[in-house]
Specification:
Helices cover 37% and strands 25% of the residues. The protein is α/β, with parallel strands linked by helices and 325 residues long. The strands form two sheets. Strands 1, 2, 3, 4, 5, 6, 7 and 16 form an eight-stranded mixed sheet that branches. Strands 10-9-8-11-12-15-13-14 form an eight-stranded parallel sheet.
Length: 325
């Protein structure tokens, strides 16, 4: 039998705090060599892109593959989303697919969760910090939720080019987290923040890195191609640079690729993988004045760890539909 979990099912059981716990363990496995993480496989049908993202966590006994498609004509031609994701979770002992679940909400939460883990390890430990959020989409919401799990916040400041979206974000997230969320008129207003999250669709830098205050921590989320970046060369130069994966960063992340091509920094500026910070192979923040930066590209180990968590929670709560395939 295979358990089928809808988006609503996944949303009913998946909490950020729990996701942060399993994602942190997954990155520790990657650092310790007990994770199998092949490169994601792209296939390009005539009208879109299909990505296959498998991974196996030996210690966690989690085996899965996420299938993500991006078909830009879907809304107009089929009344379907541009991006669709499903996760196939397997029994690592038998290989059988034991669960098929919606991958959209799962992906959003696991992306926020890794920033939460990075914030927990790299941001200053002070209480009553200020979070600055660039963007107001689903991922911006997940970033703020995760940061609020990692640190006690006094308030958050959000900036988006769409004022209406920013106002809605502020109202929704203030109610969810119980903290003031203020809408900024310009990016400079976020430079007072102790923790900055960049979660936009921008392809060019969204703030002036020279204005980021000493001791800040930054999560870079939005850009994910070699020619696009949210973060300027100056903030890369000023920061201790930690990535989810060195290979992924130098293949996909314009945030670091472009400054290296410019000659502003060398590849040695890449300080550590997040897993090496988690396992203590590299020290995290070493003083309260250094700027730390985490660059997320998204790895299948996050999906696999989260999918197993969702499955176990769903079984425990009797959620979903069992089908014979």
């Amino acid at each position: 039998m295979t358990l089928i979990l809808s988006r609503k099912d996944v949303m009913s059981v998946l909490e950020m705090k729990d996701c942060m716990t399993v994602v942190e363990k997954a990155f520790a496995e990657l650092s310790n060599g007990t994770a199998v993480l092949p490169l994601r496989i792209p296939i390009t049908p005539p009208n879109g892109l299909a990505l296959y993202m498998p991974a196996y966590l030996k210690e966690s006994k989690a085996l899965a593959c996420k299938v993500v498609t991006v078909f830009k004509n879907n809304p107009a031609n089929y009344n379907m989303p541009v991006t669709i994701g499903k996760v196939l979770l397997q029994d690592p002992d038998t290989g059988d697919v034991i669960c098929i679940m919606d991958g959209g909400y799962l992906t959003a939460v696991r992306t926020g969760a890794v920033s939460g883990v990075a914030t927990k390890l790299l941001a200053r430990p002070d209480e009553n910090q200020i979070a600055g959020i660039f963007g107001t989409g689903v991922q911006a919401r997940m970033q703020l939720w995760a940061v609020a799990e990692a640190r006690k916040l006094s308030k958050a400041i959000v900036f988006d080019l769409n004022k209406e979206s920013a106002d809605k974000f502020a109202a929704d997230m203030s109610a969810k987290l119980g903290i003031p969320v203020i809408v900024a008129e310009n990016p400079d207003e976020l430079m007072v923040a102790d923790i900055i999250c960049a979660a936009t669709s921008a392809s060019t830098p969204i703030f002036d890195g020279s204005k980021v205050k000493a001791g800040a921590h930054i999560n870079g989320i939005g850009s994910h191609t070699p020619n696009a970046r949210e973060l300027d060369t100056e903030i890369i130069r000023r920061s201790k640079f930690v990535g989810d994966s060195r290979e992924a960063c130098f293949s996909e992340a314009g945030d670091i690729i472009i400054p290296v091509k410019e000659g502003a920094v060398s590849e040695s500026h890449y300080y550590a993988d997040l897993g090496d910070i988690i396992t203590g192979k590299k020290p995290a923040r070493e003083n309260n004045t250094e700027i730390t930066l985490f660059k997320s590209n998204g790895l299948a180990i996050q999906d696999v760890a989260t999918a197993k968590l969702v499955y176990e929670m769903a079984v425990q709560k009797g959620i979903g539909v069992q089908v014979e395939i």
